[in-house]
Specification:
alpha+beta, 25% strand, 13 helices
């Protein structure tokens, strides 16, 4: 994909809220999601975000506003998940995005001819319920930030923080698909086995070390047949788009259970994702070089190395984590920023994760979700989890209310944001990925 | 569930092949699966195995042969997966199984009145294609044989084979759902990163240590809501039935990738399951005590301990692995038996696996699949994987052809069988779980 007409910074929309400074959804973004109007007997369907509204794509079809190449992807937008659209691939989504861009921009012929369409195709976001964007067949989670791997590794293995495979293998593991929930869903504090004293048996109690992980979620578009790989130079064509992902983690459960087969119940109680999927096309202006490996690091093996991916396989996405405590809600205070990281610090590119995942012939399917792993950079303020931010609880965070946090307390809300900025281009955002902790049963 | 009329050893069926000695599918079994007749434009649907035939349950409904409480579950048998039937729970499946038992037994009123029904409701197995029994939302794999864990652990950590969590935590990890295939599907040798020399970089080559793992697959029936647990005394009600499962594994890939997040590409290229799901009710006569922990082992924590589960949470299932090489096929020789294990040797019961899985509030859904982990007992001959059977290749197996095997070669077919026998009851079997290795791309 390349930068095109839909990315032009001077485009504005007749949906005025799309021009609000700081809006996540200007006309240059147009992410896809699944919505229905609350309290109505209607089926969920595909919409695109514009300002504080949702474009009901099925309504646009019914109005005769979508023709040509975009008609096929638009027809698939009647479904209650994005899977059918994802399966069609980036060119189809791109043609749909272009039609929406034409329809929504100032000067749009359709709008000039009949301004009444705004009432008929737009739904205010406050009237809508957002669903999971896709039926997620499989969810895999990676570990692509070397700073995160080094931080966590140094807590568990001070003399050997980074294992020898890290610089060769985009390390990942399978996650739980059933417990992925959309932003806004409460998360119950899980109970699990923890062992606080190595000389005593473990106990089965509510976790005392509940954490979040700030990740990017990557949705697969067209899949691959089982037994065939995805060459790295095709990997982007298998990616539909990205969202925010909170990989909630019970650190004490994880420490006790994770050997030798990896995290299981420490993660499987809930994973929260943001409802809007930002297409690869919308991200095109914010591409960046892949991580530059320091001298001494090996080059990726040939099947994970492609010159174009090294040059522009990264994405300049800023990722922020806020916490809102019960006290903040009571005092009507703003949530507190606890970290700000950058996806450019990731050791492995999205294309490398996809190519690696399918390199053994594992079949990826449209709607499958990949987590990037916690996005942490070299600075303290960029660490995307509390275990890193508070260094396993040894350096508690002081919040603006004066409250201290090592791990999450009941009533804490974790709110994630993401955005891309580049001079000469519009700012686009990801919307919100939030969840509040409710007490253990 | 209890032993009832359907288990009586003296029951015989008017489907004569059900009485063939050694048949896996006598009238006491009646497992469910998904079939369609090959080469016909018809949709796949639910059938029950009887001898060398399949009872087409939708055809029985159409013939008016299924009434009463069984009508509801029978109506769900028109679906192309068992999920809708699984969701209804064991009592519904039991009522359907009783009606089928009545219908198929010698003396059946319906058959006496109209022997023509045999033509209209039975499909010969050789005319049918079997599909995956369910849409598998999530697949989790456990590690419930202490002998397997000790064997593999002692190869990787000779001084510390069993980690301290093993006797407390039914260790498990998430597996890949997309690459689960039905018995008979060829399995392509995966390519992956392996590091043979610790002083050299890894290489990306076809695996040299391709292995199988003989496991029991456990299908979930009714699920649990996210955030709620499944108490161990209810766990059986959430299990629909079991099948055979081959957790194909690339040992060299696994050794290099598995730290710190567990197996990933070493397993995700393929998992094969047998097509017939043996219901918990059919297994009732073969229940056995849970593993008796030796002195010094801790008792399970209270949430994993239930007196009735200790007394009868095990299943006396014999599990056999055969290998058929290209040379055997050419010489028309029988496959060679390479191991015979017993599910009674498992350290954790099925109910404990289910209760543990949901103990953090993770939602299980109808059709989810749990692997038991490799079933290995204390004797060499009972080890359910080649890495154990040949002790990491150090003790090659001599096959009846004179061929030697450390790991699997291209053209090797791995064939798994399972059966239950108990004096005073019929022998019931699991059918076949097979797959042949085809060369890497």
């Amino acid at each position: 994909m390349a930068i095109n007409e839909t990315h032009r910074a001077d485009l504005t929309s007749w949906v005025e809220s799309a021009q609000t400074p700081g809006s996540d959804f200007p006309i240059q973004n147009l992410p896809f999601g699944i919505f229905k109007r609350a309290g109505r007997a209607e089926t969920a369907r595909v919409g695109a975000a514009i300002g504080d509204h949702i474009v009901d794509i099925s309504a646009c079809v019914d109005e005769g506003l979508i023709t040509g190449a975009a008609a096929v992807p638009a027809e698939r937008c009647r479904a209650p998940t994005l899977n059918d659209l994802m399966e069609l691939g980036g060119d189809a989504a791109s043609s749909l995005r272009r039609v929406l861009s034409d329809l929504l921009r100032v000067g749009s012929l359709a709008y000039r001819n009949d301004p009444g369409i705004s009432r008929r195709v737009l739904v205010p976001m406050y009237e809508a319920e957002m669903r999971l964007p896709a039926h997620i067949g499989d969810y895999s989670d990676f570990y692509a930030s070397i700073d995160h791997a080094r931080n966590v590794g140094s807590m568990l293995r001070p003399d050997n923080p980074l294992l020898p495979n890290y610089r060769y293998v985009p390390v990942g593991y399978h996650g739980r698909a059933s417990s992925i929930v959309p932003s806004g869903t409460h998360v119950r504090r899980p109970t699990g086995q923890i062992r606080e004293d190595p000389d005593e048996p473990p106990t089965f109690v509510p976790t005392k070390r509940l954490d979040y992980e700030m990740e990017l979620g990557i949705f697969i578009g067209p899949g691959n047949a089982q037994g065939s790989a995805i060459p790295i130079l095709n990997a982007d064509r298998h990616v539909f788009g990205v969202c925010l992902l909170n990989d909630w983690s019970a650190r004490d459960v994880q420490a006790w259970e994770y050997q030798p087969l990896g995290p299981f119940l420490a993660k499987s109680f809930a994973t929260t994702i943001s409802p809007w999927v930002i297409t690869l096309e919308a991200l095109e202006p914010y591409r960046a070089p892949a991580y530059v490996r320091p001298d001494g690091d090996p080059a990726p093996l040939p099947h994970l190395l492609w010159e174009s991916d090294q040059r522009r396989g990264g994405f300049d996405i800023t990722l922020e984590v806020y916490v809102r405590t019960t006290a903040m809600r009571q005092r009507r205070q703003d949530p507190a920023l606890v970290s700000r990281g950058h996806f450019t610090t990731m050791y492995w590119t999205v294309a490398q994760l996809v190519a690696h995942h399918a390199s053994n012939g594992c079949n990826l399917r449209a709607g499958d979700l990949l987590g990037s792993g916690t996005v942490s950079g070299p600075e303290k303020e960029s660490r995307g989890s509390l275990i890193e931010r508070t260094w396993r609880g040894r350096e508690p965070l002081r919040l603006p209310t004066g409250e201290m946090r090592t791990f999450l307390e009941d009533g804490d809300e974790v709110i994630m944001h993401g955005y891309c900025e580049r001079s000469g281009f519009a700012r686009i955002g990801f919307g919100e990925c939030s969840g509040m902790i409710i007490p253990a049963l």
